[in-house]
Every structure is written in C-alpha cells, then in structure tokens.
C-alpha cells in the first residue's frame, strides 16, 4: 500500500523488493530462517579492499534502494542545499589549530578555504613562518574516499609517519616522510590500524597489522628503508576477542602494547633501550579487570578498577618493577566519581573525571599531594583534555564548550592556576548564545532511575507540545555523549526544533554502574530509557509523539531498531545511521571483524543459551513485526568493517515485507565510504544536511 495523500511521502514509486533465499540455522535447539542472508557478500574480506568485486546481484539491489531513496527525498533537494549552506557558513574555512609546543617546534593543523582535508604544519617553537608537512587535499586528489590518520614525528623532528585509508575500510597504508624536503621515502606499510610509534633514534617504528578479518592482531617493528616483508613480529595476540594497539610515552622510555576488550585489559612494555627484547608483561589479564599506564619518571601511574574500584582509582608502581603486587593506591576509589583518563607530567598528575553527570579536570601536585579542580559554571558542558606534548611542563591544554557556548581552547598553568584563552571557535555567519537555551532535565525511567537529558532550543520556541524534537541516543560501550557545541544543531533549533540528547544507560554518564546496567542481560534498559525520555519530553510540553524524530548511529542504530519495534507509535520518524540491527546473526559469526571482541558487551550466543536468548529478545532484525512503523531512514557504507552494509540492507527488506502498509523505509548506501560516511569536512556536512532534511520533512517544517 502506498502512503496516504497527506503523507510526506505521497506518490512514491514501487519500492525495491529483495529476493527471498531462505537459509536456516540451528543453535541451542532453536532453528531460525533468514530470507535475506544472501545479501552478505561471501567475499566480504576482499571486497572491503576492492569494492569493484561486489556480487552484481547485491550491487543492483543496493543501487535500486538508492534510486528509491532519491525519489522519496527528491522534494528536499533545495532544503538540503539550504541546510548545507547554513552549516558551511558556520565553519571558518581557513581555520587553524593553535600549535602545540614540542622541542624546537610547535605542531598544528589547518584547513584552507574550500579544502576538504587537513593540512599539517609546524612553526618555530615561539612563532614564525609555517612549514607545511602534509597537504591532505593534495594527497586526496582524484580519490572518491580519503581519510588521513595524522602525522607523527621522530624525536629529532627529521621524519614523520603518516597514514591514509582510501576505501573507507579502515585498512590504513603508512608512509614515511622526510620533513625537511617533504618527500616520502620508499617505505610503504599496508593493512595497518592507522598509526605508528617511533623508536627514539628515529630509525625504526612500531605498528599494528590488521589481519584478513580486520583485527589488529600483530605488532611489528619496521626499520626505515627495509621492505614490509622484512619487518620483525614483536607480539601476536592469538585471542580474537581482544583488540590491540601500540603507543609510546612522553619520555620515550617505553613502547606500550595495549591489549583489551570491553572489560579486560593487559599491557606489555618494551624498553626503548633494548628494542629487540621480548615485551614485558605488567599484569596478566583477569576477566573484568581494566588498567592503563602513564609514565611519571621513576614510577608508573596506573588507572584501574582492580579491587572492586568500580569507578576506578589511581595506583603507582616503580618503573623497575610495575608488577601488580607492587601497585600502591594513590587516589582512592570514590563511588559515583568515575575517573576516565589520566596523564603524568614532571610535577603534576592530571585526570579527567565525571561526577554528578558532569566532567571535571583534577590536578594533583606530585610532591605535596594537594589537589584542585578546574572550575566551570554552566548547567551542562563538555571538556576535552589535550594535555601537552612535553613531559617537563607546568602548562596543559584543554577545551570547553556547551550546547550554546562555542568551543574555547585554554592553556592552563597547573602551578599558578592561571587560565589563558587561546582561541574561541569562530562562527562566521554569526552566533548569539543569548538567543538559545541549554538545559539538563531528568527523565524518570521504568524502574525509577533518572535519565539525564540535555536540551538545546531557541528562547522564542513555544513549549506547548507543538515543537518538533530531534531526540538523539547512543547508549553502549560506556561512551558518554558530551553536551558540546554543535554548529549543525543550530539549523534545527533555528527551525523551532528542540534538540535533545538522551544520556541513557549503556554509557558512563552517571558512573560505571550506569554502563553495567545497560549491557549484556540488562541491555533492554537502554531502550526503555530512550522511550522514557520521549515520554518525559511529551509530558513536560517540550514536544509531542507526532513530532519526535529519533536518531542514532552504529550501536545507537541498534537502539533505533529496538525502539521502533517496542514503541513505533511514539516517533514520527527514525534516522538509523550505520545501524547495528542484525545483532544475533553478527554475534553468531565469529569471522566478522568485531564479533569476538564484542561478546563481553552483548553476550556470546554461540556458547551460551542464556546469552542467545537475551540477544534474540531484542535484536531489531529478529523482532520486526506487523507494526505501525514510522518512516525510517537507514544509512550504511559499503566498505564499513564495523557495521557491515548487509545489516541495514536486510533490515529494510524485512521491514518492507513484514509491515508493507507502514513506513516507508529508505536505505541510503554510500558506495564509496565506510563507517564514518564520507571523509571530507564538507562532504560530511552534505550527509548531515540530508539527515536533517529527513527530520524536517517528517516534522512538516519544509
């Protein structure tokens, strides 16, 4: 049945119909049949590196979906142009970062007018002419997709490693550049995670290699000038359930090998005085125990939840013997105060914490033990702690913003407590914070918990239930969605929208327990919190059910699929970007890039019947029914290794088959992009303008 003549989607063509090719699978005595399993390319590993080899039948279906989506959204073309122009007008096109001092130089990045990609530069330490190190626009020329991984310089500032992904598959190629000439050397390191760590002598570096299943399973040591085939394997992680990364310390004393999943971690250290040695284990992995290290001269500072410190504590141990039995508590665990990250400098220890739902930066004098917080006044705000590139310093850098206050960058002297404003984000088209309101309200959940909600709207918005609302949510992996300034959200606020962020369980907005209460068997709390947020906003007159457009991406896209199944009548439209909606099938496929590392987050349905049943109860694809779904826009990337393109493709096909009288269901597949969408800064604005045009269309505000 076509939408009614009064629908925003009247007179649509016939939607694509995916062929049904049933495939059955039996686990734990339960048989499920998947009619659309054929949409998963058998050669997906190779296709991520070469999208041209995608099965023609799958390509034809994706292209037909894109054509249908374009027909459905055709009347928003001018609106999209207007939104794009507004968003671009709020960006300072020739913007430059404030360079950070490191030795004889200060390093920074900039964009040029009309440019899509960053340019990296350096100046003399105390100012002077810029030296261009890497021109991202030049490197991206002629490529449909291009993403830089930055550039990391040697201790002597002579060379740099830079990386790029030109397919969206997150397989990065590394190159070595002579920083004096700007020329790349012969080194080409392929299939990496995107960065490397130099040895102090600048003659070699360490990197992680992605295997054929897109997992960073090996750390290699590369000597400049040698072929990749000659690189030495330093460490191999044989458990596919663990991620791995490699990093370095400010003092250049150690190479860190960080091995972790979502609840367990392990570090191995390689002294830079003996690069050929075997990496030294700090503390063997124990399920549920996390720790991370930062070096402070003769001690390591260890951030950990060991010993029941659910919201984390900081310990210290001698550099010479950092084994767990030598850890001594320095900053005690305080329930409800979540310590997020820490940094050490010659005279100070610094950490970022979250308390009462708001971030704080704490500075501790390493000699006296005196602590102080860097204070802020607004009701809801966001902080970013950049620290410093040098160890022997009293000055660190942080950023501050709120939903109404553009980002501000500060240098902060930890000894004198002097705060110096370096830069305020410019909005070339103009922005008056006095025209907007940012608020933090609390929505009662089904079990009595209170869900924080951050709101942005214009002061002249009438709050009688008539305002449209974009309600955003994520709720997974302990990720906290910051209440930060967004120039893009102003385009909705200026059209009378209430822009809302639901800080639901699954994130760490209210401490580690908030995360635990939104994962594994408690996952449905995440979905119920989001629905409770919608209910509260309606009850308080901020909006009405027929005016709420829900949005979420990746794991937040799973949230969108789940709430669409649970309460379709409470949303006027749903935007699901790269949505993780085929949860059960993905968690049953241990060849996929993220499946084994994700089991501690969602459960392992291969090994456990209970965990199979938890996931089966909410997996959006498995719970599609004949329900009054609102219009749904799903967005995916063909080479996305995190949420594979076939998940939203199958979901839309099943929605269309099972509830044909509802919807409509639109699928937009970026045929030359991955998980993050298009890579250029203005290309990304085009995608946001498209999503916002859908929301405005659903709200009847075109």
TrEMBL record:
List, alphabetically, the InterPro entries matched. AB_hydrolase_fold, Pept_S9A_N, Peptidase_S9_cat, Peptidase_S9A, Serine_Peptidase_S9A
PANTHER family assigned to the protein according to its UniProt record, in alphabetical order: PROLYL ENDOPEPTIDASE-LIKE, PROTEASE FAMILY S9A OLIGOPEPTIDASE
- Write the record's keywords in alphabetical order, separated by commas: Hydrolase, Protease, Serine protease
Lineage, opening ranks: Bacteria, Pseudomonadati, Pseudomonadota, Alphaproteobacteria, Hyphomicrobiales
Q: Where is this region: Disordered?
A: 1-28
Source domain of life: Bacteria
Set out the biological process GO terms recorded for this chain's protein.
Answer: proteolysis
Q: Where is the Peptidase S9 prolyl oligopeptidase catalytic domain?
A: 484-700
Please state what the protein is called. Answer: S9 family peptidase
The record's listing under SUPFAM superfamilies reads: alpha/beta-Hydrolases (SSF53474), Peptidase/esterase 'gauge' domain (SSF50993)
Q: What is an example of a Pfam family matching this protein?
A: Peptidase_S9
Q: Which GO terms describe its molecular function?
A: serine-type endopeptidase activity
Query: What family is this?
Result: Belongs to the peptidase S9A family.
Q: Where is the Peptidase S9A N-terminal domain?
A: 16-424
